[in-house]
Specification:
single chain, alpha/beta, two-stranded antiparallel ribbon, 16 helices
Length: 413
Amino acid sequence: MLKWIVFLVCLQEIISVASTASRNKLISYALPENRELKKALGYNEDTYLNFQELTTKYGYISENHTVRTEDDYLLTVFRILPKCKVRGFPVILVHGIFDSADTWIFTGPENGLAYILSDNCYDVWATNMRGNTYSRRHVKFNPNADAEYWEYSFDEHGNFDVPAIIDYVLALTGTAQVYYIGHSQGTTDFFAMGSLRPEYNNKIRLSVQIAPVAWIGNIRSPVPKLISILTEDIKNFADNVGLRELFAKQHISHAISEFLCQIAPNLVCGTGLWFATGNKLGSITEKNLAIGIGHLFAGVSIKTLAHFGQLINSGNFQRYDEGVKGNMLKYGYVVPPKYNVSLITSPVVLITAENDWLSTLEDINILRSKLPNVVDEYIVPVPTWSHNNHLWGVNATVYVFNRILEYFERYNI
């Protein structure tokens, strides 16, 4: 319900300015952050503290690194130094759609995976894919003025962002391999990379794919299924009125959601997550729901949403369909090529849930049948467990994080 309401709010806003917008002029409707107002309204301060403010507050040492991609995007990657003598391999964390590096820490030191990894002596690198609130930079393009900046989907995440980050971490740490943990779209990014850049298999010690998303023809969530029917029309309309991103930090959709979820976390955010993912009310605390919405809407390109819509409609895991002419220019084929995940020879762990409406067991079965080196598929043994419980759930440490530590211990040798 929440995401659908937000979508309608944004659509209404687009229509109101459509008469003055043009294809080459972007709509800008950001609001000031206004922390003082949020304090006065009684917001939990963890709602609006950024990544490094949160790590400092809870006694962790973090660093800010800039990674330049081959196509000149400038990505912000946060490093949390281990609390003890470093062990194993560096851990790269890649967030999901609408998300940022904050997703790994906003639940606090007792329940945030990045903190838990640091406590267990791992060198943690929390990434931010191009376009989110921390990675809105480019050598040439301005995301607030240049439509060209937003011409990407998760295809570019996999082809450029993730490889650049892996190479940067390996060069800085002097290690030969990394651990990779992806959640939702963070898994999609990995599967795209492994298909397009198979040489990176040698650089991955082990990947843990949480709520994996590749084939999504059996998706059960009503929101993306409904929107996917109009994918092409929505994309063309948004391009024509100058809208290239949605759900960005400080946009009206973010401000409304953040305010409502401070007042009624379960009613608003809990119901929204249930409608989008199947999440059971109460399985994520009201505190984490209220804080999480301040970090969740970190921005996504319209093209990324359109790409997922294409996957739903086609039933395939394939590259972005640019149309016949565009496909011939970009790929040399009339139709977009399918991602060849059989090229992913590095060891893969799949962590899944029975009640995940976005990452269904039916679709994961397709994915698993095509991956050549799945060392384990772990279905969380809670029938109501869903997409975001993996990171924010009441028992995420027991059911997911401890298991990840066990996998790493096995591969540390």
